[in-house]
Structure formats: C-alpha cells, structure tokens
Give the backbone structure.
Amino acid sequence: MTVGREEHLWIPESDLDGMSVDTLAVRAGQVRTGQLEHSDAIFPTSSFVYGSAAQAAARFGGEEPGNIYSRFTNPTVQGFEARIAAMEGGEKAVATASGMAAILSTCMALLQSGDHVICSRGVFGTTNVLFQKYMARFGVETTFVSLTDADGWEAAVRPETRMLFIETPSNPLCEIADMDALSALARVNDALFVVDNCFCTPVLQRPLEQGADLVIHSATKYLDGQGRCVGGVVVGPARYLDEIYGFLRSAGPTMSPFNAWVFQKGLETLPIRMRAHCNNALELANWLESQPSVEKVFYAGLESHPQHQLAKKQQDGFGGIVSFLVKGGREEAWRFIDATRMISITANLGDVKTTITHPATTTHGRLSPEDKDKAGITENLIRLSVGIEAIDDLKTDLTRGFQALKD
Ligand SMILES: Cc1ncc(COP(=O)(O)O)c(C=O)c1O
C-alpha cells in the first residue's frame, strides 16, 4: 500500500526538525481542515460544540483534549503560537491581546507580592510605567539599571529578585545587552531572564538559545509588519507557559482569531522583510552620520556604536530601528519631522512603511523628566523605523527635514 501525502492533512512538526527559520516562518504550525485549503484556515468562533453532554463534560473536566471556548484556545491562535514557538526555538507559545498584555501576563503568572524585578532603563515607555506604577501597587518592586552597566545589574540583585527583564536592542537608543552575562547572573540568583525580542525578531536573534527563560513580542510590530493588528506573544518552556496560559484563561487578555491569522500570514514574509529592513537601515544610518545637522546616530550596525562587536556576535543583522540626535532641541526635532512628506509620523514601528517618531513627547512622554534623562530620551532625539521603500526615496524625504533645519 502506498502511503501518500493524503495520510496527513498537516505537516507533522517532526518533518520540520532542523529546518531554518525561513522555512519555519512559512510552514510551521499549519493544521489543515478536511477542505485541504492551502492557505491557513481562520476560525472566528467564540465557542465549540460537542457530540453529546458526556463529551462536553469530558472536555470541561480535562479528560478529553480539544477546544472549549476561544478565551481558552482557538485553532487559528494555536497555529500562530506553534509557528512563532518553532521560529524562536521554544517549547510553547501563548498569544495575547497586545505586547503589553504579554508582559503583564508573564508578571502576573510568575511573580508575587514581595518579589523584586530588575529592568533595563531603556525599555519601551509603557513597560516602564507598568513596572513602576502598576506592578508596584501589587507589591512587586522594580529597580531600573542601564542595559550596558554590568556592575549595576550585579549590584541591584537582592535575595527577593525573581526577574531580570530587558529589551535588546533597546527602544529607542539601540543599546545592546550582553545576554550571556545577564543569563548567567539570573541563573546564579534563581531569577527568570526575560527578553523582549521585538526589535530583532527570531530572524535576527533567538534569545532562548542565549540563555533567556522567556521571550516576549509585541506582535504589533515586525511580526505583522504591515501595521494592521495589535497583539503579543510569550515563548518558552511549558513549565512557565502553562502558568501564563492559566492566567490568560482566567483573566482574559487573549488574542482574537482574526489577529492571529494576520500575524500567522505576517510571519511568512518576516525573514525577507527583516533583511530588507536591515539593508535600508544600515545604509540610512551611514548616510545620517555624514549629515552636518546630525549630532549622533544610534545604530548597532555602525562601527561607531559602542556595542557593535557584541551585536555582531549575538545577532544575525542589526535591525530596522535607527535613532539620531539633530543639533538643537525639541523645536529642531519637530521642524525636521514636520518637513518630511512621505514618511509617516506615527508611534508604531516594524512596519514596511518607514515611520518617524519624537520619543520624548510620544512613546516616552509619560516618563518623568529624571527618568527620561537617565534613559537618554532627549528633546532632540528622533527615531526612525526604517521600512522597505527604495533607499533613495527615503533619503529624498529625509533631505526635506535637513533642508528645513537650514532654512
Ligand atoms: C519593544 C516593545 N515592547 C512592547 C511593546 C508593547 O506592545 P503593544 O503596543 O503591542 O502592546 C512595544 C510597543 O511599542 C515595544 O516597542
């Protein structure tokens, strides 16, 4: 008897063992229905039906596996989770309603009152607010340390430290953390090492292979890549992910099936998009460095970047975020931004469309002046999320900004 491809409607995960992230992005996590659709199916349903009352009872009682209700599990969401877990090299993933919901759910599931967190100073502004304002209300105290200050991390450890949380590269100054050193510090202190991998994505960096316990994403950014949906995901071993899933099931910040479908399709083009973002960003960073109105450029792909060698060691590319200081202050930064015509003035990043942001008054606007100061968020700082448009057209649009500074 011939065993044909029709024997299975899906590609068993084992058939993809050892395949590259480019292949996993396209193939992992698809479960075909009896219709044998080629693209991933979407299941926009809030609940699932049973053949009998006894089967319903068995599902609810956990004696029979299967879907119950989309706050718990949904096949489209599971497809996205399986694909990103395969790409990050993690055992499991849990998708959430936003990137912030991913961070919150991780904290709620794995921390308790009395615990202490060390967080890098240069994180996304809302992450800072979540730890500083909200987690503190529930008895979880956070110390903020510069991402690159190795001694500062060691000095901040207390007996009750349970989590080290970082973004690398950081938002928006593109500082790079030494993940080997921080994971070793977490291990000896019995703390979790959590990495927000939003800027690199698994195409450029896989923190679980470099000692992280958990990886977090705002799927809103590169995983979607076209600015359509808000979502998040946590990836890591089942022993932590089962706890996070338990929190989500009870508290409810789950991902919708429609968003999961968009993200699943977004992942298919992530590897080629990331390479295009990296190429454009490196070229723009070099070009910006040569502009007389630019005081400084922050991009780990530049040899002038203090952690250039570390970024080369840890990453397979330098990413699409380039930040720079214009000479002057807020007025000059705003004048520059307002003079561009094509590039979108918006706070989102990771889109195929290039975006331009003034962090001090938008993404990091809720930080106190002292915290902004410590995080290096100055009034003359501009962040570009470099898209995949033709490089010469991006330079043309940015030249309008430089022209406005001369006028
Ligand atoms: C690095 C990073 N992490 C987390 C988040 C939060 O994600 P979301 O907006 O999907 O909640 C953002 C949002 O900009 C971000 O840039």
Q: What stands out?
A: The first helix runs from residue 21 to 27. Residues 372 and 378 are 7 Å apart (CA to CA). The pocket of pyridoxal-5'-phosphate is lined by residues 98-100, 124, 127, 167, 171, 196, 198, 218, 220, 230, 232 (CB under 6 Å). The chain has a mean pLDDT of 94.
